[in-house]
Design goal:
The structure is a single chain. This protein is α+β, with helices and mostly antiparallel strands. It has one domain: Sandwich (Jelly Rolls), CATH 2.60.120.1440. About 15% of the residues lie in helices and about 40% in strands. The termini are far apart.
Amino acid sequence: MTPRFTPLRPALPLAVAAGLGLLLQQAQASAPVPRVVEVPFKPAFVRPPGGKEVPARVGQILAPASLLRTEKPGRLQVQLANGRNFRLGGDAVLRMSADGLNLEKGQIIAWVNPGLKGGSPLKIRTRSATASIVGTTVFIEATADSLKVFSWEGQVECLTNDGQRKMLNSGQQLSFDQGTWRKSRLSQSEAAARRQKSILLNGFATPMETLPVIEKELGLVPPPAPAAATPAAAPGAR
């Protein structure tokens, strides 16, 4: 009896599976993730959960629950997976979490790009209060016993740890010192001085998309650009 041979099946399913696997890997590699986008001044550090602290570097991917730290004059800028950004400086310590940022101390400025408004608010927690922003630029400075929350533009909702809810609009500041909350509005001259001297508004090469909105909202002008260095004259040149 002549043996019957079963024809080989095409390897198409394996090829398709391999192609889909490659596409999945590429999609995962290109998926938005939190990362460091600029480190204009050092020292600045990143400590992944369960890992050792290492110097922050541009392009570094930040795992959930990473701890960020700066020492004067160190500063860094981070872009979150949803496109929102923040800058950190001033002997700062911040831990990232799945639902926001936990600022232990130091200075932070965070903003939502004009084209990315909507969605859940970005929450920044401190020892004394939690600030929530949507389509806003907020500055926060936290110490062991004091807090300043300043709205550069847009509306910021602050929920204090003792249950008070306070709203800030452009140019308004909420302060906590010696157990007392105080809400105030900066004068245009005070806002202008802060614009000129801020270590987080200035000194970065990466554009801050809401900066033109801030200047228009508060009637401010950008600081003058640094003067270009004059090349040294060659020996004997006149």
